[in-house]
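Sample pair:
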Amino acid sequence: MTRIRLRRLVAGFLALGLSITGTSVGSAASGPPPGTADTTAANLAAGKPIEASSTVHNFVAANANDSNTGTYWESAAGYPHALTVKLGANADVGSIVVKLNPDAIWGARTQNFEVLGRELGAAAFTSLSARADHRFDPATNQNSVTIPVSGRAAEVRLQFFANSGAPGGQVGEFQVIGTPAPNPDLVVTGTAWTPENPTETSRIAVSATVRNAGTANAGATTANVRFGGTVVGDAAVPALAAGASTTVTVNAGTRPQGTYAVAATVDPAGTVVEQDDTNNTFTSPTPLVIAQAPGPDLEVTGIRSNPPNPAAGAAVSFTVAVHNRGTSSAGASTTRLAVADTTLNAATGAIAAGVTANVAMSGTWTASNGGATLTATADATGTIEETNESNNGLSTTIVVGRGAAVPYVEYEAEAAQYQGELLAADPLRTFGHTNFATESSGRESVRLANQGQYVEFTSANQANSIVVRNSIPDAPGGGGQDATISLYVNGTFAQKLTLSSKHSWLYGSTDDPEGLTNSPQANARRLFDESHALLSQSYPPGTKFKLQRDSGDNAAFYIVDLIDLEQVAPAAEKPANCTSITEYGAVPDDGNDDSAAIQRAVTDDQNGVISCVWIPAGQWRQEQKILTDDPNSGGYNQIGISNVTIRGAGMWHSQLYSLIQPQDAGGINHPHEGNFGFDIDKNTQISDIAIFGSGRIRGGGGGAEGGVGLNGRFGTGTKITNVWIEHANVGAWVGRDYSNIPALWGPADGLEFSGMRIRNTYADGVNFTNGSRNSRVFNSSFRTTGDDALAVWANQYVRDPSSDTAHDNVFANNTIQLPWRANGVAIYGGYGNKIENNLISDTANYPGIMLATDHDPLPFSGQTLIANNALYRCGGVFWGEQQQFGAITFFAQGKDITGVTLRDTEIHDSTYDGIQFKTGGGTMPGVAIENVKVDKSNNGAGILAMSGARGSATLTNVTVTNSAKGDIAIEPGSQFVLNHERIPAVAAPGRRIS
């Protein structure tokens, strides 16, 4: 568990080998020298979208048309490199002006470049001014070059080939002087609707007046109307002469009760070439208010199962909460619940207005492995005439047994067929000294050192994708390298898979995570990473997948730990109410930064211009955190997004990725939070995407950080579903200190993470802090987190410590594997928090579950529940190998730990003690331990009370077997009391304690 701390990012600017401090040098841009440009023309490039083929540090393309020569774009070393401005419509261009900063510190230089242009609809650029040398010298011409041209273009490009003053091309300001070509310009001038005061049952019609304000005729197109950002219909717009207007009508049908911003957009698909594409939308200054209609309206508000987390084969019953939000009583109806292939019905009596009925469904469902989706429907037979017929259903998920219902099957290398060396951990599972087996799942893996060696897995499931957890050597100087391995399917070569060590291999003997380094030395940890690939086809169960070291697979060695095989569904289609980021200029798979386009789409959603942001299938590069612009931040912008929905085509299909390490990105909202992912303040839904970060280290010198996938206040109304996060410092950090921006204080309340896949982080997976409450992480998987996979930290940096403690958070049905630092699950203070139905395995050095009062939290109070979890191979040594941790550890370092119940739990194959009460300054009174099995504590006791532990525990129906140092051990001097009755040994080589 890590405390996010404010760090200042110190940026250095380099020009001609001189260090320039501050954010700019010299004066703002001035106009071109008199007589060098058409004075009747204007600079058409200012503020327009601009992109570059490459960028160095934070010298981004947007600096080249921000009307400030104190900022500039610079390309990477080598040539050619291009800088392209998009005017949005054809223009008649008379000259191009290229400027550098006029300050004398820049000195003289010669740049060689060509000017090219492309008209709308043209396939290729053509030359406007041939490649030539251009001299920049502040002593003679203010570092400004004017190039006369003649042509029509919608995009203008500078193609650079040389620069005598820097390794790449440089531009302080890029001006395109010209006049718009004759084009139409469609605008909406007003809207109206009938009836003026509608209810939920009114059929609403919206009229929009469209005018062609341009200088040329406009072809036929369409106009759409949005209520609150949702498109409710469209209408045909006829061809319009310049200056002409028409009124079109959109039938919006009936809509739910509420207040809606009404907006109309002409030519939403951009089929008409216009002078200005930014003025096509009109938003009514008066909102549309839809009143509640008289009558009944049933909705499902919840589904409860009994038992809530059943084992496979159990009979499960259900209760459905049916609420009548209407103004009059709803008559008798039928409530229906569908689960897997079972349908349950229940007769439902009349429900008065405003009343909720808890309807017990008739019959039961037999729970099956993997769980199922529950879908409940009120008035399933349609017997009641309701004011809103679209809100009768609710879907949720039930998970059977412990752990997450993951969509893949995991296969261990040591259980496969192989030719290579089996690596197995030593009895102490030593960690931190380049111990591959200790960091392996099951504490075993297979090493391939020679050509022809392999690991071959036989599948038990249908699969069209593969994930390989592996280790290959670091680059000699650090920083990692890529290498291929050959994949064979049923004995036939299929493809090369690319493995990488760029995000593994941290060095040092310290256990302080910020003392580790990327520079190679003897002791290394975080040795494994993962690679994934979609396969060319789907393969049935029984298929043999072989990873083999072949010719061209040039890593010095390959260590294969496990693979995941998954049948990935096809990419989802765009929902009708979503707007694609491609409409904002994002281009998939081109390697260019799409951050600006994504940010514009999210901002429009937040402002009600659109109702949902769609991220289509593709690889989308993101080098800036998505947030809310705060021009008055005075430093790091730490205002997140609100009231936003972001959807993707699936985590395997819609993938955001970053290549620039956060400390090198520039312009980030906070060094620790990085340059990728999303900053969230409240009411945000994100689903079915992946976020692949660029982090390579948790901390250290130079402000190096790993970045955070999702961070912010989170507030109310936020739900994150089916999101894959990898190579971040933290997957999701939930909370901001109250002192950050007090006016925006809003801790997470009702936040839900589900279907998460968090891998290979440098710190926490998900951390609930700063007063997070009533929130949960459910049905998610975590592998190789660099700190607590899941944590509740009731820290003191809240508005009111007496009431803002973290409480009633739940971690349920998660699968947690291989934390390489700290715990599987940890709770630091608070009340009402629960750890239930999780599978936790192979912690490298810390417990599988820990309750603790280190990190100075607010006190424990009320009840904390640990129930129905299973732990395998947990615990270890840490802090200079001087402290041994149990599989489950209670550590009252300072404050007391009170109100704890541990029940219905299995602890297997612990490295040290099964359950440990650790020495600390606080006490742990009245711990209840019920129905717990502890088997095979390899280097410790079943249950240990250390010498400095204080408090008590009552053991009921607790079984301890095969412990190296006894069933129960109380160290001399301990003030901890264990209340139990010893029963003589039974047939098993252990004792029952009851």
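DSSP finds three helices and 75 strands in the chain.
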